[in-house]
Design brief:
Two copies of one chain form a homodimer.
Chain A: H1 11-24, H2 27-38, E1 41-42, H3 43-50, H4 54-66, E2 70-75, E3 78-83, H5 86-100
Antiparallel strand pairs in A: 1-3, 2-3
Helix pairs in contact in A: 2-4, 3-4
The structure holds a DNA duplex.
DNA sequence: CTAACATGTGAACACCTATTCACTTGTTAG
DNA sequence: CTAACAAGTGAATAGGTGTTCACATGTTAG
């Protein structure tokens, strides 16, 4: 049940939507998401792979997990993070296509 | 040619990707985009519809147009803005689905 | 030309946030 | 138990940014 019609999203939904985009809007955080979207990966592996401090990665991961963009799973000392669901990778792909096609004329 | 594999996007692409998400990450700007995505709409109509100042709408519209999220078309005194391409609405839809489904287990 | 309207723009301010540092919590091994 | 490693957290700071205000630009009508 949407509020009125397709894109007339109600205010709380807009706030939530904006929050999700906002989280993906930081380059460092986006890199972390991209590192998680392929396969589950530990915090320390993200940090070393992206050349970031573990502290910084944890801070971002907390926000991403709170917004349910990523999910966590403990295995011994390490905690593995992965993309929460398929919508995330879908959004990422659509945006990459948008970048790839500067000015196309095959809409409709 | 991507840099390595699917989600190992090269750095300039990440910056561009993050920039797009960042623009959608502000609630006011997101509302403006949503107002444009349905049909072309004039700046003053966006402003009155969303109860914002024309100045503020113009500021946001400039950023959105620079990132090619929206495109502009002049008609007399007014300038009509609309979504740049189908990828934008696609991203919006995917994110809305992500919000709609809190915790689904039907992936793969 | 001038007047009125629509849009664009620059500067300033208040607010937010990404990052770092120091530290704590939790887990495994001995 | 302690030691070592992985992850999480709180505070503080530097930089970024959304908003407003005043003004400039552009367009149409007379």
């Amino acid at each position: 049940m949407s509020c009125q019609h397709d894109y007339s999203v109600c205010d709380p939904a807009i706030a939530q939507l904006a929050d999700l985009f906002h989280l993906l809007g930081d380059p460092t955080r986006l890199r972390i998401v991209l590192a998680c979207v392929t396969a589950p990966i530990a915090v320390s592996d993200i940090a070393s792979s992206l050349e970031l401090s573990s502290s910084l990665v944890s801070h971002h991961l907390r926000l991403l997990r709170a917004a349910r963009i990523v999910k966590s799973e403990r295995q011994g000392k390490q905690v593995f993070y992965s993309a929460a669901d398929a919508h995330i990778s879908g959004v990422l792909n659509d945006m990459l296509e948008h970048i790839a096609e500067p000015s196309n004329g095959h809409e409709a």
